[in-house]
Design brief:
The complex is a heterodimer of chains A (201) and B (179). In chain A, 28% of the residues lie in helices and 31% in strands. Chain A has five helices and eleven strands, in the order ββαααβαββββββαββ. In chain A, the strands form three sheets. A five-stranded mixed beta sheet of chain A has the order 5-11-10-7-8, with no helix packed on it. A four-stranded mixed beta sheet of chain A has the order 3-9-6-4. A two-stranded antiparallel sheet of chain A has the order 1-2. In chain A, α1 (16-23) crosses α3 (43-64). Chain A is elongated. Chain A starts with a strand and ends in an 11-residue tail after the last strand. Chain B has 179 residues and is an all-alpha fold. The chains are: A alpha+beta (201), B mainly alpha (179).
Chain lengths: 201, 179
């Protein structure tokens, strides 16, 4: 297969996934050596590697921005704090309702939801409004059965802009037939303490 | 005139004192050396330093006709890259004097860096499945290895690789990036 990239072509292009693994230093050394020999003669694959680097750098910036809603690990949160990010964390017990807010200089917002997950195979995290209307469903989240909690990073960008409001997080075990079983419910009474955008009250 | 020449054709011309062949060799090899530097040194400025130092050594060797098999030029450049990276890690200041004397002539034209729409990327990442998004965020936040990410998320290392590859393919597709 010949592949053109940036006005130059390659008759034996390195696979895109391999280029990404090369950039992330995840290849065995023999594979890495072979890739480097190829890149030293092939500008088409060099141009493709530049695309990989650009995507990686943008993803790193995005991952560090705290603006994504995503399930993360305890180690991830600790590492973020160790590298100087200001992490605001709330850790309600099952059934607990807590008061919460965010400050202008917070970098990351996480909810640590205490729960036993030893038997669960699929778990969904549902964010609901006070009347029970589902606002967001995070289906089949990654779970560590031994962790004793699910840690969800909420978008700090969204939290800083949002008005005073109440949100309920519900952890649901979902079986093969789609039936749901409540594992835990946690209520967050968010108070706005910094000015938000006009019209969002 | 020199653009159509192979790498192997350049080496003997440089040994004969052909400065245009030398410039063409630098134009070709500079961006390749820089990519190697970005991968191993993780810094644009360090990669630029690597380019200068490697080209200095390669030109010195070619001028002295020390490259016996001219078709091995790329291999020779790669070997020099590896050697210089080891040296750079040992001492970042050893060749400052040489660079001050010759360095200005050895800065390659920067290859255009592709740019991405960050807002579109954020939208694309939010469309990933939960496991995919977790793996992507944890992988790229601090370049966690598959083993670290697997341990953190309670899934196997092989599964992390599969999830990451699938997510990256979906992101490239969503962004319209063709590799």
């Amino acid at each position: 297969m010949t592949m053109d990239h940036g006005g130059v072509s390659c008759s034996n292009p390195v696979e895109a996934a391999t280029l990404m693994d090369y950039w992330l230093a995840l290849l065995p050394s023999t594979d890495e050596d072979a890739i480097e020999e190829h890149l030293m003669t092939c500008d088409a694959c060099g141009n493709r590697l530049r695309q990989v680097i650009s995507l990686s750098e943008s993803l790193r910036t995005l991952a560090r921005s705290g603006s994504l809603t995503v399930v993360v690990s305890d180690r991830f949160v600790k590492h973020a704090a160790e590298t100087g990010l200001r992490v605001r964390e709330y850790a309600p017990a099952r059934g607990e309702s807590i008061q919460c807010t965010v400050a202008a200089d917070d970098d990351m917002l996480v909810a640590r939801l205490a729960v036993g997950l030893t038997t669960a195979s699929r778990v969904d995290l549902s964010w609901c409004e006070p009347r029970g209307v589902e606002h967001q469903r995070m289906a089949d989240i990654p779970i560590d059965a031994g962790a004793g909690s699910v840690i969800c990073q909420q978008s700090i960008t969204w939290a800083k802009a949002s008005p005073t409001m109440t949100l309920t997080a519900r952890l649901l075990e979902v079986n093969e037939t789609g039936e749901e079983h409540l594992l835990g419910e946690y209520t967050f009474n968010h108070t706005r303490t910094i000015p938000g955008p006009p019209g969002w009250e | 005139m020199y653009v159509g020449l192979s790498d192997a054709d350049l080496a003997p011309r440089i040994a004969d004192g052909d400065s245009e062949a030398e410039a063409e060799m630098c134009r070709r090899m500079g961006p390749r050396i820089r990519l190697y530097g970005l991968r191993h040194l993780r810094s644009s400025s360090a990669a630029d330093d690597l380019v200068q130092q490697v080209l200095l050594k390669v030109i010195e060797a070619l001028r002295a006709a020390r490259l016996r098999e001219s078709d091995k030029l790329a291999h020779f450049v790669l070997g020099t890259c590896r050697m210089v990276v080891v040296e750079l890690r040992r001492s970042s200041h050893r060749q400052e004097a040489l660079l001050a004397k010759f360095g200005g002539d050895l800065i390659p034209e920067a290859s255009p860096t592709p740019t991405l729409d960050d807002r579109q990327l954020a939208r694309c990442v939010q469309t990933l499945k939960e496991r995919e998004r977790s793996v992507v965020v944890m992988t790229f936040y601090d370049e966690h290895t598959a083993a670290e990410t697997a341990r953190s998320l309670g899934i196997s290392e092989a599964n992390v690789r599969v999830i990451r590859h699938r997510a990256m393919a979906q992101l490239r597709d969503c962004l319209g990036v063709t590799l």
